């Protein structure tokens, strides 16, 4: 079984913002695989089904970003899934251009507070993560203001393409392995 987590903030106020691309990716993955992510459980919204023949639980924590680990820990404990073999987390990254992805098998939080909280609750950095580029904040702009704004129209198509590729990357991980997904989707834009 796999637990696929998309990070974001609950409520419509934050819908379609840079910080919510993890939610958007999980919603798209659910839609592509006919899994509704709408059951309130474990301090989050969840949906169960199969993707590429594997049992999955799709999760959108509803604790706000900085407390995402509370939800993830509850899900992992309930389903008895080990992070290193069954967790994939999708989230925004300001150090990557809009439209680009970075898939890694493990690593630090890289300054992302949602990831810091997950790592603290799981007591490990050893799990797959798919970082979705949202672009660097303009100089002088507050980071919170930047990540909580919606994408300008010029970037929206790139981001939508990255969301589709991130969903396909999850499918690649489930049907093959992380290395195959990294080789296929960790390509920089030219």
Automatic annotation (TrEMBL):
It is found in: Cytoplasm. CDD domains: PTH (cd00462). The keyword Manganese does not apply. The record marks 9 as: Discriminates between blocked and unblocked aminoacyl-tRNA. The active site is at 19 (proton acceptor). Its EC number is 3.1.1.29. TRNA binds at residues 14, 64, 66, 113. PANTHER family: PEPTIDYL-TRNA HYDROLASE. Catalyzes the release of premature peptidyl moieties from peptidyl-tRNA molecules trapped in stalled 50S ribosomal subunits, and thus maintains levels of free tRNAs and 50S ribosomes. Hydrolyzes ribosome-free peptidyl-tRNAs (with 1 or more amino acids incorporated), which drop off the ribosome during protein synthesis, or as a result of ribosome stalling. This is Peptidyl-tRNA hydrolase.
């Amino acid at each position: 079984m796999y637990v696929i987590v998309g990070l974001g903030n609950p409520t419509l106020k934050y819908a379609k913002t840079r910080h919510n691309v993890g939610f958007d990716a999980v919603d798209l993955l659910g839609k592509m695989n006919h899994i509704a992510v709408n059951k309130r459980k474990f301090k989050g919204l969840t949906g169960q089904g199969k993707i590429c023949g594997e049992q999955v639980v799709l999760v959108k924590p509803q604790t706000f970003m900085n407390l995402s680990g509370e939800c993830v820990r509850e899900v992992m404990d309930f389903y008895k899934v080990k992070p290193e073999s069954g967790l994939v987390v999708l989230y925004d990254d300001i150090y990557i251009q809009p439209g680009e992805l970075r898939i890694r098998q493990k690593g630090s939080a890289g300054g992302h507070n949602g990831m810091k909280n997950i790592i603290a609750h799981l007591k490990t950095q050893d799990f797959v993560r798919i970082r979705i580029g949202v672009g660097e904040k303009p100089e002088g702009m507050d980071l919170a203001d930047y990540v909580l704004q919606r994408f300008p129209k010029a970037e929206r198509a790139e981001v939508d393409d990255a969301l589709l590729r991130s969903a396909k990357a999850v499918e690649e991980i489930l049907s093959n392995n992380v290395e195959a997904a990294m080789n296929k989707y960790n390509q920089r834009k030219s």
